[in-house]
């Protein structure tokens, strides 16, 4: 995929969503100085943004560029049959991670339906008005999950049947250009035996359809981060700063910021990741957004908080 891998230690596998395990592991990561601060700059949805640069789907580009829109909220409304004022943060999270991203990466409605349905009980999902989502769906005529057997035709009134129609609208109506791009990209690969990424790498060999359409934006997204990491390191040396880069974790840069350098460092990193990167690669036609979190002086990685500069 041209994504990164990490070892000794594998910081990409250090838990964050499991708050209990995170509370045991993340306190082990502290600054080398009592006055230092652990800082993390995280690209916001970079793989989706880069995929938009490849497929140029107008609806996807609108979601990326227009901050008044929210793709994950809209899909929460479709998946759970919610009105705008009924959507909760948790329902949006499930739509994002159990439908939108899986669909973008090649999953399909059966596994998405199971994940979304199971999440209702596991996460005790409710509407914003406090009604259980299963009760809400019953009122909408969906009383059970339905068969997960791919050889069994989905039955109306089941969540599986509903998700099948949601998936159909997702690719045929909402993201039709993206859908066609996947077909065209795959056919071009079959004809040539390789494809070239926007960042200058050629991928060939034995790839299935899912790999073929995922590798370009997964690899290019990491190359964006890698370019920024190299550039930040050059700036640290140029200005003789004591701040050091610890490494990268998925879509983020992790650093140990020296006392008195936080403002300068965050400004350097933010400019490189949101401005300089787009100047370097003109194929980036969408805004790049970065979230910054910083731990208090001398405190651990677990205690990082949003930093606005």
Task: List the topology elements.
Elements: H1 19-25, E1 37-43, H2 46-55, H3 58-65, H4 71-79, H5 89-104, H6 109-122, H7 133-139, H8 159-174, H9 176-192, E2 194-196, E3 202-204, H10 209-238, E4 244-249, E5 252-257, H11 262-280, E6 290-294, E7 305-306
Describe the structure in your own words.
The chain has 309 residues and is α+β, with helices and mostly antiparallel strands. The protein is built from 11 helices and 7 strands. The chain has helices at 19-25, 46-55, 58-65, 71-79, 89-104, 109-122, 133-139, 159-174, 176-192, 209-238, 262-280, and strands at residues 37-43, 194-196, 202-204, 244-249, 252-257, 290-294, 305-306. It has a 5-stranded antiparallel β-sheet with strand order 4-5-1-6-7, with helices on one face. Strand 2 and strand 3 (202-204) form a beta hairpin. Helix 2 runs antiparallel to helix 3 (58-65), helix 2 packs across helix 10 (209-238) and helix 5 (89-104) packs antiparallel against helix 6. 30% of the residues are buried. The mean pLDDT is 95.
List keywords for this structure.
single chain; 309 residues; alpha+beta; five-stranded antiparallel sheet; two-stranded antiparallel ribbon; 7 strands; 10% strand
Could you give a quick summary of the protein structure above?
This protein is α+β, with helices and mostly antiparallel strands and 309 residues long. The protein has helices spanning 19-25, 46-55, 58-65, 71-79, 89-104, 109-122, 133-139, 159-174, 176-192, 209-238, 262-280; strands at 37-43, 194-196, 202-204, 244-249, 252-257, 290-294, 305-306.
